[in-house]
Amino acid sequence: GNSQMGATIVDALDTLYIMGLHDEFREGQEWIDKNLDFSVNSEVSVFEVNIRFIGGLLAAYYLSGQEVFKIKAVQLAGKLLPAFNTPTGIPWAMVNLKSGVGRNWGWASAGSSILAEFGTLHMEFVHLSYLTGDSVYYNKVMHIRKLLQKMDRPNGLYPNYLNPRTGRWGQHHTSVGGLGDSFYEYLLKAWLMSDKMDTEARKMYDDAIEAIEKHLIRKSNGGLTFIGEWKNGHLERKMGHLTCFAGGMFALGADGSRDDKAGHYLQLGAEIAHTCHESYDRTTLKLGPEAFKFDGGVEAVAVRQNEKYYILRPEVIETYWYMWRFTHDPKYRQWGWEATQAIDKYCRVSGGFSGVKDVYSSSPTYDDVQQSFFLAETLKYLYLLFSNDDLLPLDNWVFNTEAHPLPVLHLANTTLSGNPAYR
Ligand code: DMJ
Predict the structure, then answer these.
(1) What is the CATH code for 1-172?
(2) Confidence band for 4, pLDDT divided at 50, 70 and 90
(3) Of 28, 66, 243, 370, which is most buried by a Cβ count within 10 Å?
(4) Computed from CA positions of residues 358, 361, 367, 370, in that sequence, does the dihedral angle turn out positive or negative?
(5) pLDDT in tens, 98-151
(6) Distance in angstroms (rounded) separating the CA atoms of residues 171 and 336
(7) Domain extent listing, the chain
(8) Cβ-based neighbours of 381, under 8 Å, separated by 6 or more
(9) Angle between the 315-327 and 245-254 helix axes, to the nearest 10 degrees?
(10) How far is the CA of 262 from the centre of ligand 1 (A)?
(11) Binding-site residues for Ca(2+)
(12) Helical spans, DSSP H, in 49-195
């Protein structure tokens, strides 16, 4: 949006807490208490507000126990609810926080909503119902899930676009990167977050991943495993930086996988981590491009000028961290340290850190933006990579897609929908 909503302050809070920067944390809390106000006439992305603000506030609440964060998260969630007023219950991409009027992105296929956007609300909304005892949030996201579950999927793949008026798929494009990514992540994490009770989510994840492996994952001539994009029956041999998170996801989902293929998925995670490291290593700055190809002799290298930028994204480091937790192979720390040094050398500026426009140029220019996910994710995952495993153990915490840790809900002996917390 165009209003002063302090995204960086909110997104960075739990990183401050985890790093033990408690004075700065309290300063952030004070700002939130006094200034964070959602009654603004501003159109915002439902997805971005959910993952960065609601996720950030909930994590700050769980870590610190300070009520103000819970109160603000619930207030904000209330402002997002009008986005679900569509004929199908699939939310609009954007909503005006004041008027509640929603709409979709003009560029999205046939007026569609985006899979990675309406499919990345589940964790936060289940927690909101858990904390408030109000089932409204839970019902919204379960409705989305049920609707998706009933739909036919071309080749078992979920298209990135779904029209919220008609309930029909838009273009048959499938991606594990931008437009699709965190939908798959949230299926797995819904299961983990429910203390593995939500087996419906696990099944949907397993089915989706099987189709992805069959149709989208290939090995390049040089032996690099990559995840391509499906476009109307054709595989585009291109992988985005965003897609690199999937290495960590495969490793995280290994335990509990169908037919006990844990070893296979851990190996797949390792291969994706290796490919993404290569995409960094084959640049001048040792920072990865936005997208890289595996075509006509090109391997893990960006071809188009407008895909050569690095905007402080976390996905590759995120995968190093998960791989480190599951294997303790020192190479992941070494790769994380390479990235740390490169960020410090090429992205540090007087006012903070900036993205760079071309990772293949020895004299890069800055984009003059410090994305809020740099503090929320990139630095947090680096910090965790060099910390002990007992800092936020994965048995107890599940990270939302913006790296905000939410606790596992131990709802023993009940199904999610039957749990009294949601009535
Ligand atoms: C973050 O906001 C989240 O990780 C999201 O899921 C994808 N993109 C950015 C970081 O690159």
Answers:
(1) 1.50.10.10
(2) confident
(3) 243
(4) positive
(5) 999 999 999 999 899 999 999 999 999 999 999 999 999 999 999 999 999 999
(6) 37
(7) 1-172
(8) 314, 317, 318, 320, 321, 403
(9) 30
(10) 26
(11) 401
(12) 55-64, 67-80, 115-118, 122-132, 136-150, 181-193
